[in-house]
Amino acid sequence: MNNKAKKVYFVTGGGTGGHIYPAISIAKALRDDSTTQKVFYIGNPKNLEAKIAKDEGFEFLPIDVTSMPRKLNFDFLKWGIKLDSATCKALFYIFKYRPNAVFGTGGYVSAPAIIAALITNTPYMIHDSDAHPGIVSRYVASGAKVVSVAFSEAKNHIKNKNIKVFGNPIKQEFFNISKSDAKKELNIPKGLTLLIMGGSQGAMNINHTAINCLQYFVETLKLNVILQTGAKNYDATIEFLEKIYPEYKNSDKIIIKPYFDNMALPLNAADIAIARAGSLSLSELSAVKIPSILIPFPYAAADHQRKNAKCYEKAGASVYIDDFELNKEKLESTVKELISNPERLARMSESTAQFCKPNAASQILETLKEIAK
Questions:
Q1: I need a labelling partner for 359 at 20 to 30 A (CA). Which of 148, 151, 185, 221 fits?
Q2: Tell me: domain 3-168+359-371, CATH 1.10.10.10, correct?
Q3: What pLDDT is recorded for position 199?
Q4: For range 102-122, the mean pLDDT
């Protein structure tokens, strides 16, 4: 196929991992497709998406955009002016590179490019990862050729006649390693393994409570424990741990890291997880069929983490705990109750697996190619 017949795509999404990583997955799928000429990534140069997109080898087109203030004040006016400026920049990119389609994953970062696509009648597709879609997704959905969602519940909040429940695109690595191989690579002893994670940024409340429970988990319940603290919380977590349980250093049953470059390893090694309820984390839990205790971030936009967690709880895939209810006694008793009931864990695993959409990336790719003009 000659270059004239090949397509150019804009991919946009940023601010948080839940927006960035699905966008990167689709950008990579597009780049690897024989019908693609070029993929450009649009985002905020000050955000994580800039580094990730550049590290992945994509040409990065910067726009200066920030999240929308929640109150009608002077900051809101400044934000509106900045959004208009960012949209004009996105219009410039569209006129310069002539994309055949635009793909956005919601959030404030994707707004300028999607609005510019709407203005220029460039076909666009959006993907929203949460059970309750964000304000940008809801605002631009009506003009999209296709809307992709991860939760069927999201369809109730979006106005579009062509909504597909494709699920979240995640890395193939999650499907390519067995539990035994993952445990071997991490040098984890025999026995049940509990993974505790607060998302890519960590969660201090979860870390703090988990540290208070660590001795009980390891010595009383005989669990292996993997704790991902988040980079910014690692030093404080270790300092607190050394005060209350210095013997942890002598245990081969404990792994504590600020983050894992390859989350497929700890997730595949685990038998149960304690986690926030970000959509990407939930998709990864589903890919490896792990029962979970979900503790949603209480200040997430539109309370979307709580709504995500409630979907999993309703399906029997997870136990739900509010962040304000989290304490040592609550977490210890919940973990003890679950590991004492293998039949329930098995049912939870089956329920979690029902949320898994292993073909999400390929389905989104093919749909995006269909709408490209």
A1: 185
A2: no
A3: 62
A4: 96
